[in-house]
UniProtKB/TrEMBL annotation:
One Pfam family linked to the record: ECH_1
Protein name listed in UniProt: Enoyl-CoA hydratase
Keyword Glycosyltransferase found: no
Organism: Pisolithus tinctorius Marx 270
Annotated InterPro entries: ClpP/crotonase-like_dom_sf (IPR029045), Ech1-like (IPR045002), Enoyl-CoA_hydra/iso (IPR001753), Enoyl-CoA_hydra_C (IPR014748)
Pathway where it operates: Lipid metabolism; fatty acid beta-oxidation
Annotated PANTHER family: DELTA(3,5)-DELTA(2,4)-DIENOYL-COA ISOMERASE, MITOCHONDRIAL, ENOYL-COA HYDRATASE
Coiled coil regions in record: none
Similarity field: Belongs to the enoyl-CoA hydratase/isomerase family.
GO biological process per UniProt: fatty acid beta-oxidation
């Protein structure tokens, strides 16, 4: 790490070269700070694994006390209450969207209970692995509200069955890791629980981290652009992006390594800290305690 950052609810380690492991507890204001400052705080990170620190729970959803607190408005005026609630929701959305702004791939290692907010969290990650013991639920309708932190915005982009996704959102019924795989929400089901899915996710992160960081961060950036733009717009943008990025020395290094058929190890230089500027920043970030 480039600095010692003390966090109350999130643990961040670097268990393998160039790979960060972010473990959640109660967290969301620290969550945005960690992802928006990943490289500044933790040095040369080229892939991130996101998991829980709790063996049987990835995330059980929003805290009921927090939910009830939202009803305690400081104003009796409905419009002013709405302004305050909107600001709160937007801040929460920005926090849970922070893995998208992180310039390196974020891999969610999901296990145990993954309800409500858990689905918002994993939907904002690049890759999702689930342990076979995972139980999911888009839970919000059961507590009287529509999902508002990212699940509905992203579900059609990360799933392959819009009808099933709508069914799960309307009913809040629980579904298994295998059904999540059939839905297309996760790309792999790992037999076991927390330890097994974290191990496989770290192995994947390590593989990604060995690639050219110019290529990987560019791929993430262009995938995000493609999601939000037409095919034609993305092709034109990609041409402009790669007009600069094709000049990297990483291409020559990668070609030499490929021609050596594994005999030659390749080492890529780290990226500058702000190779892909964040699209937005949340006002909810605490200052790190160094």
């Amino acid at each position: 790490m480039s600095a010692t950052v003390k966090l109350d609810f999130i643990k961040v380690t670097k268990p393998r070269p160039l790979v960060a492991h972010v473990q959640l507890a109660r967290f969301w204001k620290e969550y945005v700070a960690v992802f928006d400052n990943m490289r500044a705080w933790y040095g040369d990170v080229r892939a991130v694994v996101l998991s829980s620190s709790l063996p049987k729970v990835f995330c059980a959803g929003i805290d009921f006390e927090d939910l009830l607190d939202l009803k305690n408005s400081p104003s009796s005026d409905p419009a002013r209450t709405a302004v305050a609630l909107r600001r709160h929701v937007l801040s929460f959305q920005a926090a849970i969207s922070s893995p998208e702004r992180c310039p390196v791939p974020v891999i969610a290692a999901i296990h145990g209970v993954a309800y409500g907010l858990a689905v918002d969290i994993i939907a904002g990650c690049d890759i999702r692995y689930a342990a076979s013991d995972t139980t999911f639920s888009i839970k919000e309708v059961d507590v009287g509200l529509a999902p508002d932190i990212g699940t509905l915005a992203r579900l059609r982009h990360i799933s392959s069955n819009a009808s099933l996704g709508a069914e799960l959102a309307y009913t809040a019924r629980t579904f298994s890791a295998e059904e999540a795989f059939r839905l297309g929400v996760v790309s792999r089901v790992v037999e076991g629980g927390m330890d097994e899915v974290v191990r496989e996710s770290l192995a994947l992160a390590e593989e990604v981290a060995r690639k050219s960081p110019i290529a990987v961060t560019g791929t993430k950036h262009l995938l995000m652009h493609a999601r939000d733009h037409s095919v034609g717009e993305n092709l034109e943008y990609t041409a402009t992006w790669n007009a600069a990025m094709l000049q990297t020395e990483d291409i020559l290094k990668a070609v030499r390594a490929a021609r050596s058929k594994g005999r030659e190890e390749v080492s890529f230089e780290p990226l500058p800290m702000d190779i892909v500027p964040s699209a937005s920043k949340s006002d909810a970030k605490p200052k790190p305690k160094l």
